Each structure stands twice: as structure tokens, then as C-alpha cells.
Amino acid sequence: MKKSTWWIITVIGLAVIAAVIFFIMKPGQEAKHAGKVKINQDAKDELLVSFTDQQLNNTYYLHDKALHTEKLTAYPSIAYDRAKQTLYYTYTDEDTQKVSIRELNVKTDKEKTLFTSEDSIDSMRLSGDGKQLYLRYNKASGEQFYVASFDLKKHKVKVLYPKKSDDDTVSSFAYDPASNLLAIQHYSLKEDYKKTDEANEKGMDPEPTTMKITLQAGEKGKNIARISQTINDISFSPDHKKLVYTEVKVRNEKEVSSIKMLDVDTGKTKTLVKNSKDVHILSTAQPQFSSDGTSIYFLGAAKNAKELKDDNGRKAKVRTIYEYDLKKKTVEAAWEKDGGIVNNFTVNR
Question: Which one of 96, 149, 185, 194 is most buried, counting C-beta atoms within 10 A?
Fold first, then answer.
């Protein structure tokens, strides 16, 4: 079955942060000394980071402290309960390709598997009360994506959005633990296929599929924005009045990304961060507000970033988590480690 351009960007594109390691590094390849985690000592927040080194060892860091390490098998999703000192992460069995949600008590190093399925999970957020995980969830029987919840006590998955449509699919979501609000980014598969087919016929880049953002509390949802542009990785401000996301424009197969902010009440958007001579913003930059709302963290590559390369010439640059100060309008490195790739990160509130 043909995969649409947008589907590739949001599904395969999201996973390529981790998957690029599979292509550029061999499991038995000798690892170079990667050094310590470099952090901004003035940073206001703890960052939960998934990092894969050159030997395919995936380590979960709470800022500069390593919580757990194991071999990477697929794109990892993570969440952390600070009160319980518990790490939740996904693990994919290489033989069965089944995905599991695992729970690790960081203090005792006790680990257990909570859930195993043939379905896929590529994003997790812990609820404010610590009783459930919110997931971006894909059933093995199709390509439609959902927002689902996972009950940490009953160990059951429940689809939250969409419940009835077979055309509406979720590309990303944000969760605010204080208000228990979900912001869901979604689009029409039919529209996406149509635009892709039209572009193929004309031999040109496809027009972006219309992105919709729905604000949902419990069973009730309200559409707050329609954006005719490729966007990724939405995230709430601490007061849940604003959302930040990555905007990606593709022209002649080249991507140009920026970090934008959306006012939840008015629907107005504002560009916050653009590419500069020193920092290249990734198409999956995962922008997130600091806990006090004064800055934005995002994933990028420095101009002079070290390059990882394999025998076939395939390359990938070391990625850095940057912090953009909203008042000073300055960008500083917040988290970086040589010898591998940052897969994803979360501001640990």
C-alpha cells in the first residue's frame, strides 16, 4: 500500500531520530569515548533524555544522571514519575516485534513489564495524578493513529481519540498535568492521499495537508486551530494558554524548520525561533516550555556539530537540546553528549 508524504514525515520521520543509528552504526562497531553529559549549569529544569550511543546502547538520563541502559531495538518512548522515582519506557522485542511498556523503580532497580502488544506506541506522557500514561497509539491492523490512555493499575489501554472516524488520524499530542487537558494534532488521511497523488501527477512537492488542533477535556473536544502547513511536536505552556510546535516547510526536497507559538484562545500564531548561522532546528525539534514558562527547549544541531559516519558514507550530526529565552531572545545549549544521538526528551515537571 502506498504511504503518503505526511504519513512518512510524522511516523517514519519521527522514528528516524533513533533509526538513523541503525543505518550509520553497526552493533559490533568499536565505540569511541563519548565523554560526559554536557549541561547548562544555570538551567532551571531537569530534562528526561533518551540517548543512543555508537554501540546501540540506549540510556535514559534524568538531566546528567543515567537511570537505565539497554540495547536499542526500536524508537523508545519515556515518562518519569518524580514522586515515585519510577521510569516508564517502551521496549520492542526484536524477534516478535511486540512492544512492551516497562516500569523501572530507579531507587531499587526493580523492573517489571506492564503491557505487551503487537500494536505500536511512540509517545508517552504521565497523568498529573500518576495513575495513567497517555500514548500515541497505532493498532497493528491499520495505519490510523490514536491518543490512548494506559491504566497503570489495571494495565489496560483505552482509545480516547478519535473514537468513531476511520479517516481522522493523530500525528502528535500534548498533555497538561495541571489542567488534565489534551491538545491533539490530527489530519485527514483522505486529504493527505489526495494531495500526494496530485503532486505525483504534476511532478512537484505536495501541498501540506491541513493540520487540525483539538483541545480535549474528558469526553468533550473543541477545535482551536486549522493550519495549512506541516507541523510537528505540539506542547503546552505551564498555564495551558499557549502551544508551541515545529513548523516545517519543504521546497525542492529541502526542509526549513522554525519554532512557533499558538494562542489557545485566539488561534493566533507567532514565530519564536528560526534557523541561524549557529543552530539548525530539526524537523522534529520537540519544543517544550520550561517549568516557569520563560523559555523554550528544542532539539537542534550546532553548525560545528560532530558528524557520525559509517563505511557507506551515511552521516548524522550530534544533536543538542537548546534553550531559547523568551525575554532575552537568546539561544544556549542546555544538554549535549558526544558519540551518539538524542532520540527524544521531556521537561520533567
Answer: 185
Instruction: Please return the burial class of 300, using the count of CB atoms within 10 Å of its CB with bins 0-12, 13-18 and 19+.
Output: buried
Residues 6+ apart with CB under 8 A from 131: 151, 152, 153
How many Å apart are CA 331 and CA 297, to the nearest integer?
Answer: 9
pLDDT digits (tens, 9 = 90+) for 238-284: 999 999 999 998 767 778 999 999 999 999 999 999 999 999 999 99
What DSSP letter does each residue of 106-117 carry, written as one string? TTTTEEEEEEEE
Q: Let me know if 205 is exposed, middle or buried by CB neighbors in 10 A (0-12, 13-18, 19+).
A: middle
Among left, alpha and beta (phi > 0; psi -120 to 50; other), residue 109 is left
Q: Is 181 exposed, middle or buried (0-12, 13-18, 19+ CB in 10 A)?
A: middle
Number of Cβ atoms within 10 Å of the Cβ of 304:
9
Burial class (CB in 10 A: 0-12, 13-18, 19+), 177: middle
Which positions ≥6 away from 204 have C-beta within 8 Å? none
User: Phi and psi at residue 327, in whole multiples of 5°?
Assistant: -85, -50
Enter the DSSP assignment of 11: I
Structure pTM? 0.88
The 8-class DSSP code of residue 205 comes to P
| Residue bearing cell 526528551 | 345
Farthest-apart Cα atoms in the chain, separation: 60
Question: Which cell is 17 given?
Answer: 531520530
- For 182-199, write each residue's pLDDT tens digit: 999 999 999 999 999 998
> Phi/psi at 228 (nearest 5 deg)?
-90, 60
